[in-house]
Amino acid sequence: MSRYDLLIKGGTVVLPYHGEIRADLAVSEGKVAAIAHDIAAAEAGEVVDARGKVVLPGAVDAHFHLGIYRDLATDAFEETRSSLVGGATTVLSYFRTGSHYLDRTGSYEEIFPEVLAAVSGRSWTDYGFHLAPMTVDQIAEIPYLVAEHGVTSFKYYMFYKGFDLAANSRDARAFTMGDEYDLGHLYLILEQVARVQDAHPGLRLSLSLHCEQSELMRVFIDRVRSQGDPQTLRAYHEGRPPLTERVAIGEATTLANHTGTSVNLLHLSSREAIEAVVLAREVNGAADMRAETTLHHLCLDHDGLDAVGGLGGKVNPPIRTRADGEALWQRAADGTIDWVASDHACCMEAEKGERLWPARPGFGGTALLYPVLFSEGHLKRGLSLARIAELASANPAKAYNLWGRKGSLAVGFDADLTVVDPELAQTVTPELCLSGQDHSPFEGVGLTGWPVTTVVGGQVRFRDGAVVGEPSGRYARRA
Ligand SMILES: [Zn+2]
Asked: Taking every annotated instance into account, which residue ranges of this chain make up the domain Amidohydrolase-related (predicted)?
Protein backbone atom coordinates (compact mmCIF):
# COMPACT_ATOMS: atom_id res chain seq x y z
CA MET A 1 0.00 0.00 0.00
CA SER A 2 1.28 3.44 -0.94
CA ARG A 3 1.08 6.19 1.61
CA TYR A 4 -0.44 8.59 -0.94
CA ASP A 5 -2.82 8.05 -3.86
CA LEU A 6 -1.31 10.71 -6.10
CA LEU A 7 1.82 12.85 -6.13
CA ILE A 8 2.34 16.03 -8.16
CA LYS A 9 6.12 16.11 -8.27
CA GLY A 10 8.63 18.79 -9.17
CA GLY A 11 6.30 21.68 -9.99
CA THR A 12 6.00 25.31 -8.97
CA VAL A 13 2.98 25.46 -6.67
CA VAL A 14 1.00 28.71 -6.74
CA LEU A 15 -0.59 29.84 -3.47
CA PRO A 16 -3.18 32.65 -3.69
CA TYR A 17 -2.37 35.74 -1.53
CA HIS A 18 1.13 34.32 -1.02
CA GLY A 19 3.17 33.50 -4.09
CA GLU A 20 5.00 30.61 -5.68
CA ILE A 21 6.84 27.78 -3.96
CA ARG A 22 8.87 24.88 -5.36
CA ALA A 23 7.12 21.92 -3.78
CA ASP A 24 5.75 18.43 -4.22
CA LEU A 25 2.09 17.94 -3.42
CA ALA A 26 0.62 14.62 -2.24
CA VAL A 27 -3.02 13.56 -2.28
CA SER A 28 -4.91 11.05 -0.12
CA GLU A 29 -8.61 10.24 -0.30
CA GLY A 30 -9.38 13.21 -2.52
CA LYS A 31 -7.71 15.81 -0.28
CA VAL A 32 -4.36 17.54 -0.26
CA ALA A 33 -2.43 15.44 2.29
CA ALA A 34 1.07 16.95 2.23
CA ILE A 35 3.06 19.77 0.65
CA ALA A 36 6.81 19.46 1.09
CA HIS A 37 10.07 20.22 -0.67
CA ASP A 38 10.64 16.57 -1.53
CA ILE A 39 8.19 13.68 -1.30
CA ALA A 40 9.53 10.37 -2.62
CA ALA A 41 7.83 9.02 -5.73
CA ALA A 42 7.80 5.59 -4.13
CA GLU A 43 5.33 6.84 -1.54
CA ALA A 44 2.56 7.40 -4.10
CA GLY A 45 0.40 5.11 -6.22
CA GLU A 46 0.48 7.52 -9.17
CA VAL A 47 2.95 10.29 -9.97
CA VAL A 48 2.40 13.33 -12.21
CA ASP A 49 5.71 14.76 -13.41
CA ALA A 50 5.30 18.53 -13.00
CA ARG A 51 8.92 19.56 -13.59
CA GLY A 52 8.98 22.85 -15.48
CA LYS A 53 5.22 23.20 -14.92
CA VAL A 54 3.01 25.43 -12.80
CA VAL A 55 0.57 23.86 -10.33
CA LEU A 56 -2.52 26.02 -9.73
CA PRO A 57 -5.59 25.52 -7.54
CA GLY A 58 -8.44 24.27 -9.72
CA ALA A 59 -10.45 27.21 -11.01
CA VAL A 60 -13.92 27.87 -9.62
CA ASP A 61 -15.80 29.01 -12.72
CA ALA A 62 -18.43 30.99 -10.84
CA HIS A 63 -20.60 32.04 -13.80
CA PHE A 64 -21.98 29.23 -15.93
CA HIS A 65 -25.29 28.36 -17.62
CA LEU A 66 -25.81 24.60 -17.67
CA GLY A 67 -28.96 23.67 -19.56
CA ILE A 68 -29.88 27.12 -20.86
CA TYR A 69 -30.33 26.06 -24.51
CA ARG A 70 -29.95 22.25 -24.37
CA ASP A 71 -31.05 19.59 -21.93
CA LEU A 72 -29.29 19.79 -18.60
CA ALA A 73 -27.82 16.30 -18.67
CA THR A 74 -26.12 16.82 -22.06
CA ASP A 75 -24.78 20.21 -21.03
CA ALA A 76 -23.56 18.86 -17.68
CA PHE A 77 -21.53 16.18 -19.46
CA GLU A 78 -20.14 18.12 -22.41
CA GLU A 79 -19.67 21.57 -20.91
CA THR A 80 -18.01 20.57 -17.62
CA ARG A 81 -15.74 18.40 -19.79
CA SER A 82 -14.75 21.65 -21.48
CA SER A 83 -14.01 23.16 -18.06
CA LEU A 84 -11.24 20.63 -17.48
CA VAL A 85 -9.39 21.96 -20.55
CA GLY A 86 -9.20 25.37 -18.90
CA GLY A 87 -8.27 24.05 -15.46
CA ALA A 88 -11.67 24.58 -13.82
CA THR A 89 -12.61 21.90 -11.30
CA THR A 90 -15.79 23.48 -9.90
CA VAL A 91 -18.56 25.26 -11.80
CA LEU A 92 -21.27 27.37 -10.21
CA SER A 93 -24.16 27.56 -12.64
CA TYR A 94 -27.09 29.96 -12.82
CA PHE A 95 -30.58 28.51 -13.05
CA ARG A 96 -33.99 30.14 -13.24
CA THR A 97 -37.54 29.30 -14.21
CA GLY A 98 -39.16 30.85 -17.31
CA SER A 99 -38.14 30.68 -20.98
CA HIS A 100 -35.13 28.49 -21.90
CA TYR A 101 -33.80 26.03 -19.28
CA LEU A 102 -36.83 23.86 -18.41
CA ASP A 103 -39.26 26.34 -20.05
CA ARG A 104 -41.63 26.33 -17.11
CA THR A 105 -42.35 27.97 -13.82
CA GLY A 106 -43.26 26.60 -10.41
CA SER A 107 -41.72 26.14 -7.00
CA TYR A 108 -38.02 25.47 -6.57
CA GLU A 109 -38.94 22.88 -3.93
CA GLU A 110 -40.35 20.87 -6.84
CA ILE A 111 -38.04 21.94 -9.67
CA PHE A 112 -34.58 22.15 -8.04
CA PRO A 113 -34.41 18.42 -7.12
CA GLU A 114 -35.12 17.71 -10.82
CA VAL A 115 -32.21 19.96 -11.79
CA LEU A 116 -29.90 18.17 -9.36
CA ALA A 117 -31.06 14.76 -10.59
CA ALA A 118 -30.41 15.70 -14.24
CA VAL A 119 -26.82 16.76 -13.50
CA SER A 120 -25.97 14.03 -10.99
CA GLY A 121 -23.42 11.55 -12.32
CA ARG A 122 -22.91 13.59 -15.51
CA SER A 123 -20.56 16.35 -14.36
CA TRP A 124 -16.78 16.12 -14.72
CA THR A 125 -16.28 18.93 -12.22
CA ASP A 126 -17.81 19.58 -8.82
CA TYR A 127 -20.80 21.86 -9.24
CA GLY A 128 -23.28 24.11 -7.50
CA PHE A 129 -26.11 26.46 -8.44
CA HIS A 130 -27.14 30.07 -8.00
CA LEU A 131 -30.95 30.37 -8.25
CA ALA A 132 -33.04 33.30 -9.48
CA PRO A 133 -36.37 33.94 -7.72
CA MET A 134 -38.70 34.98 -10.56
CA THR A 135 -41.91 34.94 -8.48
CA VAL A 136 -42.88 36.20 -5.04
CA ASP A 137 -43.50 32.61 -3.97
CA GLN A 138 -39.92 31.67 -4.94
CA ILE A 139 -38.58 34.52 -2.79
CA ALA A 140 -40.32 32.84 0.15
CA GLU A 141 -38.40 29.62 -0.67
CA ILE A 142 -34.96 31.14 0.00
CA PRO A 143 -34.72 29.85 3.62
CA TYR A 144 -35.62 26.36 2.37
CA LEU A 145 -33.00 26.52 -0.42
CA VAL A 146 -30.29 27.56 2.04
CA ALA A 147 -31.18 24.96 4.68
CA GLU A 148 -32.08 21.97 2.48
CA HIS A 149 -29.80 22.40 -0.52
CA GLY A 150 -26.96 24.60 0.65
CA VAL A 151 -27.70 27.23 -2.01
CA THR A 152 -26.25 30.52 -0.75
CA SER A 153 -26.38 32.77 -3.83
CA PHE A 154 -29.31 34.07 -5.84
CA LYS A 155 -29.75 36.21 -8.93
CA TYR A 156 -31.72 39.13 -10.29
CA TYR A 157 -31.66 40.32 -13.92
CA MET A 158 -32.04 44.12 -14.06
CA PHE A 159 -32.87 44.10 -17.78
CA TYR A 160 -35.85 41.74 -17.86
CA LYS A 161 -37.96 44.57 -16.52
CA GLY A 162 -40.61 45.35 -19.13
CA PHE A 163 -38.61 43.95 -22.00
CA ASP A 164 -38.64 40.43 -23.42
CA LEU A 165 -35.53 40.22 -25.54
CA ALA A 166 -36.12 36.72 -26.80
CA ALA A 167 -39.43 37.66 -28.40
CA ASN A 168 -38.17 41.21 -28.93
CA SER A 169 -41.44 42.43 -27.43
CA ARG A 170 -42.32 44.58 -24.45
CA ASP A 171 -44.00 41.66 -22.69
CA ALA A 172 -41.39 40.49 -20.20
CA ARG A 173 -43.78 38.36 -18.22
CA ALA A 174 -44.25 36.00 -21.14
CA PHE A 175 -40.49 35.43 -20.91
CA THR A 176 -39.98 35.24 -17.14
CA MET A 177 -43.30 33.41 -16.52
CA GLY A 178 -43.11 35.26 -13.22
CA ASP A 179 -44.67 38.07 -11.27
CA GLU A 180 -44.10 41.79 -11.77
CA TYR A 181 -40.34 41.83 -12.37
CA ASP A 182 -39.16 45.32 -11.49
CA LEU A 183 -37.14 47.20 -8.88
CA GLY A 184 -39.88 46.33 -6.39
CA HIS A 185 -39.24 42.63 -7.00
CA LEU A 186 -35.51 43.24 -6.61
CA TYR A 187 -36.15 45.02 -3.34
CA LEU A 188 -38.16 42.07 -2.01
CA ILE A 189 -35.33 39.66 -2.88
CA LEU A 190 -32.69 41.91 -1.27
CA GLU A 191 -34.75 42.18 1.92
CA GLN A 192 -35.27 38.44 2.10
CA VAL A 193 -31.58 37.60 1.49
CA ALA A 194 -30.59 40.06 4.24
CA ARG A 195 -33.16 38.54 6.60
CA VAL A 196 -31.97 34.97 5.97
CA GLN A 197 -28.35 36.16 6.28
CA ASP A 198 -29.11 37.14 9.90
CA ALA A 199 -29.98 33.51 10.64
CA HIS A 200 -26.68 32.24 9.12
CA PRO A 201 -23.90 34.45 10.47
CA GLY A 202 -21.13 32.07 9.36
CA LEU A 203 -22.12 32.21 5.70
CA ARG A 204 -22.08 34.86 3.02
CA LEU A 205 -25.56 34.95 1.49
CA SER A 206 -25.50 37.05 -1.64
CA LEU A 207 -27.49 38.31 -4.59
CA SER A 208 -25.85 38.33 -8.01
CA LEU A 209 -26.92 41.08 -10.37
CA HIS A 210 -26.98 41.30 -14.14
CA CYS A 211 -26.73 45.08 -14.50
CA GLU A 212 -28.22 46.58 -17.66
CA GLN A 213 -30.98 49.20 -17.54
CA SER A 214 -33.88 48.17 -19.78
CA GLU A 215 -35.68 51.50 -20.24
CA LEU A 216 -32.50 53.03 -21.65
CA MET A 217 -31.86 49.90 -23.73
CA ARG A 218 -35.30 50.39 -25.31
CA VAL A 219 -34.37 53.89 -26.49
CA PHE A 220 -30.87 53.02 -27.73
CA ILE A 221 -32.00 49.83 -29.49
CA ASP A 222 -34.82 51.70 -31.27
CA ARG A 223 -32.31 54.36 -32.31
CA VAL A 224 -29.80 51.86 -33.73
CA ARG A 225 -32.54 50.01 -35.60
CA SER A 226 -33.92 53.19 -37.12
CA GLN A 227 -30.47 54.09 -38.46
CA GLY A 228 -30.14 51.34 -41.05
CA ASP A 229 -30.36 48.47 -38.53
CA PRO A 230 -26.79 47.20 -39.06
CA GLN A 231 -26.38 43.49 -38.24
CA THR A 232 -23.10 43.90 -36.37
CA LEU A 233 -21.78 43.41 -32.86
CA ARG A 234 -20.89 47.10 -32.83
CA ALA A 235 -24.61 47.86 -33.32
CA TYR A 236 -25.40 45.50 -30.45
CA HIS A 237 -22.98 47.40 -28.23
CA GLU A 238 -24.53 50.73 -29.29
CA GLY A 239 -28.02 49.42 -28.53
CA ARG A 240 -27.00 48.44 -25.00
CA PRO A 241 -24.25 50.98 -24.26
CA PRO A 242 -22.12 51.12 -21.07
CA LEU A 243 -24.40 53.87 -19.74
CA THR A 244 -27.12 51.23 -19.24
CA GLU A 245 -24.69 49.22 -17.07
CA ARG A 246 -23.66 52.26 -15.10
CA VAL A 247 -27.25 53.27 -14.29
CA ALA A 248 -28.25 49.72 -13.34
CA ILE A 249 -25.22 49.43 -11.02
CA GLY A 250 -26.27 52.67 -9.35
CA GLU A 251 -29.85 51.45 -8.87
CA ALA A 252 -28.89 48.00 -7.60
CA THR A 253 -26.16 49.12 -5.20
CA THR A 254 -28.37 51.87 -3.77
CA LEU A 255 -31.04 49.32 -2.90
CA ALA A 256 -28.52 46.75 -1.63
CA ASN A 257 -26.92 49.33 0.62
CA HIS A 258 -30.32 50.20 2.06
CA THR A 259 -31.15 46.54 2.87
CA GLY A 260 -27.58 45.63 3.87
CA THR A 261 -27.39 42.74 1.38
CA SER A 262 -24.14 41.38 -0.04
CA VAL A 263 -24.11 41.58 -3.83
CA ASN A 264 -22.07 40.28 -6.75
CA LEU A 265 -21.95 42.59 -9.78
CA LEU A 266 -21.69 40.18 -12.67
CA HIS A 267 -19.81 40.26 -15.96
CA LEU A 268 -18.77 43.94 -15.84
CA SER A 269 -18.00 44.74 -19.46
CA SER A 270 -16.81 48.33 -19.68
CA ARG A 271 -14.66 51.03 -18.14
CA GLU A 272 -17.83 52.91 -17.21
CA ALA A 273 -19.24 49.86 -15.41
CA ILE A 274 -16.16 49.21 -13.30
CA GLU A 275 -15.79 52.90 -12.46
CA ALA A 276 -19.44 52.85 -11.33
CA VAL A 277 -18.53 50.02 -8.95
CA VAL A 278 -15.57 51.98 -7.56
CA LEU A 279 -17.90 54.92 -6.94
CA ALA A 280 -20.62 52.75 -5.37
CA ARG A 281 -18.07 51.27 -2.96
CA GLU A 282 -16.94 54.76 -1.94
CA VAL A 283 -20.47 56.06 -1.45
CA ASN A 284 -21.76 52.97 0.33
CA GLY A 285 -18.87 52.43 2.71
CA ALA A 286 -18.89 49.00 4.28
CA ALA A 287 -21.40 47.41 1.88
CA ASP A 288 -20.16 44.11 0.47
CA MET A 289 -20.04 44.46 -3.33
CA ARG A 290 -17.94 42.00 -5.27
CA ALA A 291 -17.08 42.53 -8.90
CA GLU A 292 -16.84 39.97 -11.68
CA THR A 293 -15.67 40.21 -15.27
CA THR A 294 -15.46 37.63 -18.01
CA LEU A 295 -12.83 36.21 -20.32
CA HIS A 296 -14.58 37.64 -23.37
CA HIS A 297 -14.87 41.15 -22.00
CA LEU A 298 -11.15 41.07 -21.18
CA CYS A 299 -10.07 39.51 -24.44
CA LEU A 300 -12.40 40.38 -27.31
CA ASP A 301 -13.62 43.62 -28.92
CA HIS A 302 -16.60 44.15 -31.21
CA ASP A 303 -14.65 45.64 -34.10
CA GLY A 304 -12.28 42.67 -34.08
CA LEU A 305 -15.21 40.25 -34.16
CA ASP A 306 -17.09 42.23 -36.83
CA ALA A 307 -13.97 42.13 -39.01
CA VAL A 308 -14.20 38.31 -38.95
CA GLY A 309 -18.00 38.45 -39.39
CA GLY A 310 -20.92 36.53 -37.93
CA LEU A 311 -22.88 36.90 -34.73
CA GLY A 312 -21.16 34.17 -32.69
CA GLY A 313 -19.94 36.84 -30.28
CA LYS A 314 -23.41 38.15 -29.33
CA VAL A 315 -23.65 38.14 -25.55
CA ASN A 316 -25.18 40.20 -22.72
CA PRO A 317 -23.75 42.64 -21.85
CA PRO A 318 -22.24 43.16 -25.32
CA ILE A 319 -18.60 42.88 -26.25
CA ARG A 320 -17.14 46.40 -25.98
CA THR A 321 -14.00 48.14 -27.27
CA ARG A 322 -10.32 47.29 -26.91
CA ALA A 323 -9.98 50.25 -24.49
CA ASP A 324 -12.71 48.79 -22.29
CA GLY A 325 -10.85 45.46 -22.24
CA GLU A 326 -7.64 47.18 -21.15
CA ALA A 327 -9.48 49.06 -18.38
CA LEU A 328 -10.81 45.72 -17.11
CA TRP A 329 -7.32 44.19 -17.15
CA GLN A 330 -6.03 47.10 -15.06
CA ARG A 331 -8.85 46.65 -12.56
CA ALA A 332 -8.26 42.89 -12.45
CA ALA A 333 -4.61 43.56 -11.67
CA ASP A 334 -5.21 46.22 -8.99
CA GLY A 335 -7.78 44.23 -7.01
CA THR A 336 -10.92 46.17 -7.95
CA ILE A 337 -12.25 43.16 -9.84
CA ASP A 338 -12.60 40.15 -7.56
CA TRP A 339 -12.88 37.31 -10.05
CA VAL A 340 -12.96 36.30 -13.69
CA ALA A 341 -15.50 33.77 -14.97
CA SER A 342 -16.51 32.40 -18.36
CA ASP A 343 -20.30 33.02 -18.32
CA HIS A 344 -20.29 29.77 -20.30
CA ALA A 345 -23.52 29.10 -22.19
CA CYS A 346 -23.31 26.47 -24.92
CA CYS A 347 -25.03 28.03 -27.94
CA MET A 348 -24.73 26.60 -31.44
CA GLU A 349 -23.84 28.65 -34.51
CA ALA A 350 -27.30 27.93 -36.00
CA GLU A 351 -28.95 29.50 -32.93
CA LYS A 352 -27.08 32.71 -33.69
CA GLY A 353 -28.20 32.91 -37.32
CA GLU A 354 -27.72 36.02 -39.43
CA ARG A 355 -30.16 38.46 -37.81
CA LEU A 356 -28.74 40.40 -34.87
CA TRP A 357 -31.74 40.93 -32.62
CA PRO A 358 -33.29 37.42 -32.70
CA ALA A 359 -29.87 35.71 -32.33
CA ARG A 360 -29.48 33.92 -29.01
CA PRO A 361 -27.01 35.55 -26.64
CA GLY A 362 -24.11 33.74 -25.01
CA PHE A 363 -21.36 31.27 -25.89
CA GLY A 364 -18.85 29.00 -24.21
CA GLY A 365 -15.45 29.94 -22.83
CA THR A 366 -14.75 27.80 -19.77
CA ALA A 367 -11.96 25.93 -21.63
CA LEU A 368 -10.00 29.17 -21.75
CA LEU A 369 -10.15 30.27 -18.11
CA TYR A 370 -6.55 29.68 -17.07
CA PRO A 371 -5.11 29.93 -20.62
CA VAL A 372 -6.46 33.50 -21.01
CA LEU A 373 -5.39 34.53 -17.51
CA PHE A 374 -1.96 32.94 -17.94
CA SER A 375 -1.26 34.17 -21.46
CA GLU A 376 -2.99 37.56 -21.58
CA GLY A 377 -2.81 38.31 -17.85
CA HIS A 378 0.46 36.87 -16.57
CA LEU A 379 2.71 36.73 -19.62
CA LYS A 380 1.46 39.80 -21.48
CA ARG A 381 0.39 42.17 -18.67
CA GLY A 382 2.49 41.04 -15.72
CA LEU A 383 -0.20 39.83 -13.31
CA SER A 384 1.47 37.54 -10.79
CA LEU A 385 0.62 33.85 -10.78
CA ALA A 386 -0.79 34.30 -7.26
CA ARG A 387 -3.08 37.03 -8.61
CA ILE A 388 -4.41 34.86 -11.43
CA ALA A 389 -5.08 32.07 -8.89
CA GLU A 390 -7.01 34.61 -6.76
CA LEU A 391 -9.05 35.75 -9.79
CA ALA A 392 -9.80 32.24 -11.04
CA SER A 393 -10.12 30.31 -7.81
CA ALA A 394 -9.61 31.80 -4.33
CA ASN A 395 -11.83 34.88 -4.59
CA PRO A 396 -14.89 33.15 -6.06
CA ALA A 397 -14.43 30.30 -3.54
CA LYS A 398 -14.52 32.83 -0.71
CA ALA A 399 -17.49 34.75 -2.11
CA TYR A 400 -19.57 31.60 -2.51
CA ASN A 401 -18.78 29.71 0.72
CA LEU A 402 -16.37 27.17 -0.77
CA TRP A 403 -13.20 28.39 0.96
CA GLY A 404 -11.64 25.72 3.17
CA ARG A 405 -12.47 23.12 0.49
CA LYS A 406 -11.80 25.02 -2.75
CA GLY A 407 -9.75 28.01 -3.80
CA SER A 408 -6.24 27.08 -2.69
CA LEU A 409 -3.71 24.31 -2.30
CA ALA A 410 -3.40 23.63 1.41
CA VAL A 411 -3.46 20.47 3.49
CA GLY A 412 -7.07 19.45 4.01
CA PHE A 413 -8.43 21.26 0.94
CA ASP A 414 -10.00 19.21 -1.85
CA ALA A 415 -7.34 17.94 -4.26
CA ASP A 416 -8.64 20.09 -7.13
CA LEU A 417 -5.78 21.41 -9.22
CA THR A 418 -4.41 21.94 -12.68
CA VAL A 419 -0.87 21.57 -13.99
CA VAL A 420 -0.10 24.22 -16.61
CA ASP A 421 2.67 23.95 -19.17
CA PRO A 422 3.89 27.56 -19.33
CA GLU A 423 5.38 27.08 -22.78
CA LEU A 424 2.56 25.26 -24.51
CA ALA A 425 1.27 27.60 -27.27
CA GLN A 426 -2.00 26.75 -28.98
CA THR A 427 -4.49 28.54 -31.20
CA VAL A 428 -8.10 28.29 -30.05
CA THR A 429 -10.36 26.03 -32.11
CA PRO A 430 -13.79 24.63 -31.16
CA GLU A 431 -12.29 21.10 -31.19
CA LEU A 432 -9.61 22.01 -28.66
CA CYS A 433 -12.29 23.18 -26.18
CA LEU A 434 -13.99 19.73 -25.87
CA SER A 435 -17.36 21.50 -25.67
CA GLY A 436 -20.58 20.61 -27.48
CA GLN A 437 -20.50 24.06 -29.06
CA ASP A 438 -19.65 24.05 -32.79
CA HIS A 439 -17.98 27.47 -33.02
CA SER A 440 -16.04 29.88 -30.80
CA PRO A 441 -15.74 33.67 -30.87
CA PHE A 442 -12.21 33.06 -29.56
CA GLU A 443 -11.31 30.99 -32.64
CA GLY A 444 -7.89 31.99 -33.93
CA VAL A 445 -6.73 33.58 -30.67
CA GLY A 446 -3.23 32.32 -29.82
CA LEU A 447 -2.60 31.60 -26.13
CA THR A 448 0.50 30.38 -24.32
CA GLY A 449 0.19 28.40 -21.07
CA TRP A 450 -2.36 25.56 -21.10
CA PRO A 451 -3.37 22.90 -18.59
CA VAL A 452 -1.83 19.54 -19.39
CA THR A 453 -3.27 17.70 -16.36
CA THR A 454 -6.41 18.56 -14.40
CA VAL A 455 -7.25 16.76 -11.15
CA VAL A 456 -10.74 16.78 -9.59
CA GLY A 457 -11.13 15.42 -6.06
CA GLY A 458 -7.78 13.63 -6.33
CA GLN A 459 -8.63 11.95 -9.67
CA VAL A 460 -6.80 12.80 -12.88
CA ARG A 461 -9.69 13.69 -15.21
CA PHE A 462 -7.83 15.46 -18.04
CA ARG A 463 -4.44 14.77 -19.55
CA ASP A 464 -2.78 16.11 -22.72
CA GLY A 465 -5.93 17.30 -24.44
CA ALA A 466 -8.27 14.42 -23.58
CA VAL A 467 -10.51 13.43 -20.69
CA VAL A 468 -9.58 10.46 -18.50
CA GLY A 469 -12.07 8.03 -16.90
CA GLU A 470 -15.66 8.94 -16.08
CA PRO A 471 -17.37 12.03 -14.66
CA SER A 472 -17.06 12.01 -10.88
CA GLY A 473 -18.01 15.59 -9.98
CA ARG A 474 -20.06 16.05 -6.81
CA TYR A 475 -22.66 18.57 -5.81
CA ALA A 476 -21.04 21.27 -3.67
CA ARG A 477 -23.42 22.12 -0.83
CA ARG A 478 -22.47 25.54 0.44
CA ALA A 479 -24.28 25.58 3.78
ZN1 LIG B 1 -24.62 34.67 -17.45
From this structure: 325-460
Q: How far is it, in rounded angstroms, from Cα 45 to Cα 312?
A: 45
C-alpha 191 to ligand 1 mean position (Å) = 23
CA of 383 relative to ligand 1 center, distance in Å: 25
Whether residue 419 contacts residue 450, with contact meaning beta carbons closer than 8 Å, is answered with: no
Give me ligand 1 centre to Cα 199, in Å: 29
Q: How confident is the model at residue 174 (pLDDT cuts 50, 70, 90)?
A: confident
342 Cα to the center of ligand 1, angstroms: 8
Question: Ligand 1 centroid to 75 CA: how many Å?
Answer: 15
In the chain, list all ranges with CATH 3.20.20.140: 58-399
Mean pLDDT estimate for the chain: 95
CATH 3.20.20.140 fits 58-399, yes or no: yes
Percent of the chain clearing pLDDT 70 (strictly above): 98
Cα 325 to ligand 1 centre (Å): 18
- CATH 2.30.40.10 segments of the chain: 4-54+416-426+446-467
- Per-residue pLDDT at 163: 57
Name the superfamily (CATH) of residues 4-54+416-426+446-467: Urease, subunit C, domain 1 (2.30.40.10)
- H or E element: which one contains 60? strand 59-64
Q: Which residue, 450, 464, 468, 418, is CA-closest to 60?
A: 418
Cα(20) to centroid(ligand 1), Å: 32
What's the gap in Å between 95 CA and the centre of ligand 1?
10
Average pLDDT of span 330-342: 98
Residue 251 to residue 337: CA distance in whole angstroms: 19
pLDDT digits (tens, 9 = 90+) for 66-109: 999 999 999 999 999 999 999 999 999 999 888 888 888 899 99
Q: How many residues comprise the chain?
A: 479
**177 CA distance to ligand 1 middle (Å):** 19
147, amino acid identity: A
pLDDT of residue 168: 57
Helix (H) or strand (E) holding 280: helix 271-283
Of 386, 366, 374, 384, the C-alpha closest to 462 is 366
Is the pLDDT confidence value at 164 over 60? no
210 alpha carbon to ligand 1 midpoint, in Å? 8
- For ligand 1, the distance from its centroid to the CA atom of residue 209, given in whole angstroms, is 10
Those residues whose C-beta lies under 8 Å from the C-beta of residue 279, and which sit 6 or more positions away, are: none
Q: Determine the average pLDDT of the residues in 367-396.
A: 98
Tell how far the Cα of 381 is from the centroid of ligand 1, in angstroms. 26
CA 446 / ligand 1 centre spacing (Å): 25
Predicted local confidence at residue 371, as pLDDT: 98
Residue 64 CA, ligand 1 centroid: distance in Å: 6
